[in-house]
Amino acid sequence: MSIEYLEISNYRVFLNSEFDGLSPLSIVTGANGTGKSTLFDVFTFLKDALAGDVHSATAKRGGFRELVSRGQSGPIEIIIGYRGGDEQFLFYSLQIEQEASRVVVRRECITTDLEDDSERLLQFFRGDGVVTREIIDFEGDSKVEEAAYKLDDPSILAIKALGHLKDFPLISEFRSLIENWHISNFHINKARESPEAGYAEHLSTLGENVAQVAQYLHENHPQQFRRVLEAMRARVPGVDAVEAKVTEDGRLVLRFRDGSFKDPFIARHVSDGTIKMFAYLLLLHDPKPHPLVAVEEPENQLYPALLGDLVEEFRDYARRGGQVLVATHSPEFLNAANLDEIFWLEKEDGFTHVHRASEDPLLKRLAEEGDLPGALWMQRLFKGVDP
């Protein structure tokens, strides 16, 4: 299941922006303030809204007035075009607006055609709506049936209220996509902590459970853990092994073994880049890949020569079934990317415009002649690259 299209309207710097042709690995770059962090926040907003409601998700960001584009009154709209597990292409559209003192869902729909209401699978207005489902009888014949629903609270997403019902597998599939995507907010200091010994299958967004995940992977998926260690040995000089050890006081300590020394080093004594690379490898070798992993500025703390290897790790993750979205400032990272994987953001008159690198004639010609994207970026051939 992959996202191929994203449209954002009236969400902070994105007055009316489209990302068309998102690939399994999509890389977003741009000057400071052009909206890379805001793009990631769109995904986090949807996850927050699904976990709670659109009012609480908006309040978490300072309220509707702080979220809506400057000078606009709304509604805010997010449209996601995605290909489901059966390869059917669908659109999910969400509009929210301020109504009195509460933020509500103005309109929410899942459809095969945004312009044709007859193609809707789900459509709700302020808590009232209809859902279409296919009914198959005992003889194998099918018919399409519409069911009306009314939600108790117009700030709750319909995909939250109905996505758990087995009668609506397409809605459930999209709800699961949002619930399971991973928007990384990795903090190196969190990863250095020694948490209480416990159980964690997946790396958290902050990375504070890296030791627990390492232990889980070592004990339950040894083949995956060996791949992580092989990648570490190839990318970080001197690292022979990594282990998570329980201390006498019940803490879990991450220890890195250097072949030149008898005793291993605990996490707080190794470099930021070593810990960060190890955390990324744990994330990317998860036995159950997230449908979407979003990583902002992965180049921080990493040696530039490692960034090409990291791009390959991201691509390999996408080949195994997860989609990857990366925001970066690094020319070394861009040099390892293909032009059709790169989008760049340009801010003009206070709002952001989205460009796809492969659609720029000059960039395309220069790339075909052998120039690398990062070098072209440094030459300021991406329009609007300068702040």
Model description:
The protein has 387 residues and is α+β, with helices and mostly antiparallel strands. The chain has helices at residues 36-51, 54-59, 64-67, 158-162, 169-180, 188-191, 210-220, 222-235, 272-284, 307-319, 331-335, 361-368, 373-378, and strands spanning 2-11, 14-20, 25-30, 76-83, 89-99, 102-111, 120-125, 128-136, 142-150, 182-183, 239-246, 252-258, 265-266, 292-296, 323-328, 342-348, 351-356. The protein has an 8-stranded antiparallel sheet. Strand 5 (89-99) and strand 6 (102-111) form a beta hairpin. The two termini are 36 Å apart. Residues 260-265 have low confidence and may be disordered.
Cα separation of the termini: 36 Å
The shape, in one word, is: globular
Q: How many domain regions? A: 2
Helix content: 25-40%
C-alpha Rg, in Å?
Answer: 23 Å
The fraction of residues in strands falls at: 25-35%
CATH class of the largest domain reads: Alpha Beta
Query: What's the overall average pLDDT, rounded?
Result: 87
- Indicate the low-confidence ranges by residue numbers: 260-265
CATH architecture of the largest domain: 3-Layer(aba) Sandwich
| N-to-C series of helices and strands | EEEHHHEEEEEEHHEHHHEEEHEHEHEEHH
CATH topology of the largest domain: Rossmann fold
Strand order of the largest sheet: 2-1-4-5-6-7-8-9
Summed up, the helix count is 13
Structural class: alpha+beta
Number of strands: 17
Mind summarizing the main beta sheet?
A: 8 strands, antiparallel
